[in-house]
Structure formats: structure tokens, C-alpha cells
Write a structure and sequence with these properties.
Elements: E1 5-10, H1 17-30, E2 39-44, H2 50-53, E3 63-66, H3 83-88, E4 93-96, H4 99-103, H5 109-121, E5 125-130, H6 134-138, H7 142-153, E6 165-169, H8 184-202, H9 204-208, E7 211-214, H10 222-226, E8 233-236, H11 243-260
Parallel strand pairs: 1-2, 1-8, 2-3, 3-4, 4-5, 5-6, 6-7, 7-8
Helix pairs in contact: 1-11, 5-7, 7-8
This protein binds 1,3-dihydroxyacetonephosphate (13P).
Length: about 260
């Protein structure tokens, strides 16, 4: 049997409300026939687009998430968005610790952990993003970095809550216009290590947590990444922002997995 696959895109600080809605309408129309038992599709738009995004016609075909979240329910936290505010929108997931949050906005593992615990306690799926920088890779500490991002980020998460945790491995050096995609060999090595870390922390439940790869995923490398044993999904930026192109990438990736199964 082919593994369950996860495909999602982070719209970052792109697409206004109208463009987000039209992207979601197109994407759900293109992918309507794909069985959601086998394929989970998610889109993470800007905060301002979310109230309109949740009203799209085929809402049931796509999980919608926020790009960040404050960990307190309310309080003196100017500029933050609380889990209760996101719950009002009936969102499915919250992305936590994206590389741009960690590196441009200086978020720490400790803060990501507070957000993960808060998101889970409010019933969201927590999509924890991890990844080493170029410099950490050069120093040969990539594995230690990923392990500690997982250990701190998921500290205090119970085995019961783990069913709502997804992890995206996005090497910082691979993300964005100046990024170089990880080779399938490199991604395979890191995903295996991540899987082992999850199993050592959570036992059998750790084997079930979806591990997604992200960072310059494109039509040329998606198939070679998705077929890797510990890669359950692809988290895509630029190559997904055209709905037709994303649909093609999803179908080709799913076909590559089916052919391998
Ligand atoms: P790119 O696919 O554009 O490199 O972005 C990946 C990403 O940051 C997804 O969160």
C-alpha cells in the first residue's frame, strides 16, 4: 500500500485576499478528484486572507493554517494573534518555527515549544518547522541542531497529543530564491535521523508523525524526494503558488509513490 501523502504550501507574505481566495478556489477545483484519505492538502495564507479563505466553496478539501501564533490566550502582547482568535476562524493547523520566524524574527526553540503546547491544547495540528543553517551544516552539527529543535520544540507533548503533530524539515540554506535544494541523499539521511529521534522520544507513536521536506521543492526534484522512506510529504513555497503547477507537482509526486509501492 502506498503511504499517506501530505502536500502543502506556505504563502509567506505574498498574495492579497483576492489572490488567496482565487488560488484556493483553483487548487481545490484542480485537486477535487484526489482522495483525501490518501492525500492531505494544506495551505497557509497570510493572516489577513484567513477570514475569506475559510469561506471558500470547497473548504472541506483543504486544511487551512496560520503562519504563526502567540502562545497566550490573551493579554498585553501587542501585534500577536492568539489561539482563541485563530479558533474563531475554525482553522485546522498552525505553523510554528518557520525558518524565517526563527532567523529573521529571532524566535527561539523555547518559544516554539510554548507555541506547540498552546496550539495542541487548543486542538490545532501543530506543524513544527526545523532546519539547520548553512553555517551549522559547515560545522558538522546539523544532526545535533535538528535533534535539539525536535526535543525542545516538542518538550512536554504527550503521546496522546502526538497525532496532531507534523514536522517539516526545511534546511535554512535550501529555502527561497537563493536556496539550493537538498539532494535526495541528504534529505533521506536527515529524515531517517529525525524518525529515529521521534521513535526514541515517543516510541511507536513517533513512527506515525508525518515528516515533510521543504526548501526549493520544484517540479524537477519533487518525485525524487517524496519517494524517500521517511518523507511523508512536501512543503512547498514558490513552486506551489500557481495552482495548476502545484496540482501537477502533487499528481506527479503521488504517481511516483504509487509506482514505487
Ligand atoms: P521555497 O519552496 O520557495 O524554497 O520555500 C519553502 C518554504 O519556506 C515553505 O515553508
Amino acid at each position: 500500500m502506498s503511504k499517506k501523502l501530505y502536500f502543502g504550501t506556505n504563502l509567506k507574505m505574498y498574495k492579497n485576499i483576492a489572490d488567496t481566495v482565487s488560488f484556493l478556489n483553483d487548487l481545490t477545483a484542480y485537486t477535487e478528484d484526489l482522495g483525501r484519505e490518501e492525500i492531505e492538502l494544506f495551505v497557509i495564507p497570510s493572516y489577513t486572507s484567513l477570514p475569506d479563505a475559510v469561506k471558500i466553496e470547497r473548504r472541506h478539501l483543504v486544511h487551512l493554517g496560520a503562519q504563526n501564533m502567540g502562545w497566550e490566550d490573551q493579554g498585553q502582547f501587542t501585534g500577536e494573534i492568539s489561539p482563541l482568535m485563530l479558533k474563531e476562524l475554525r482553522l485546522d493547523l498552525v505553523m510554528i518555527g518557520h525558518s524565517e520566524r526563527r532567523h529573521t524574527f529571532r524566535e527561539t526553540d523555547y518559544e516554539e515549544n510554548l507555541k506547540v503546547l498552546s496550539a495542541l491544547s487548543h486542538g490545532f495540528t501543530a506543524l513544527l518547522c526545523i532546519g539547520e543553517t548553512e553555517q551549522e551544516k559547515e560545522f558538522g552539527v546539523s544532526e545535533e541542531v535538528l535533534r535539539s529543535q525536535i526535543k525542545i520544540g516538542l518538550h512536554g507533548v504527550t503521546a496522546d497529543q502526538l497525532g496532531k503533530v507534523w514536522i517539516a524539515y526545511e534546511p535554512v540554506w535550501s529555502i527561497g530564491v537563493n536556496g539550493t535544494p537538498a539532494t535526495p541523499e541528504y534529505a533521506a539521511h536527515m529524515h531517517k535521523m529525525m524518525r529515529e529521534t521521534m521513535v526514541s522520544l515517543f516510541g511507536d507513536a513517533g513512527a506515525e508523525v508525518p515528516l515533510l521536506y521543504g526548501g526549493s521543492v520544484n517540479p524537477g526534484n519533487a518525485e525524487s524526494l517524496i519517494v524517500l522512506p521517511n518523507v511523508d510529504g512536501l512543503f512547498v513555497g514558490r513552486a506551489a503558488w500557481n495552482a495548476e503547477a502545484f496540482n501537477t507537482l502533487i499528481r506527479k509526486s503521488a504517481a511516483a509513490c504509487a509506482a514505487k509501492a
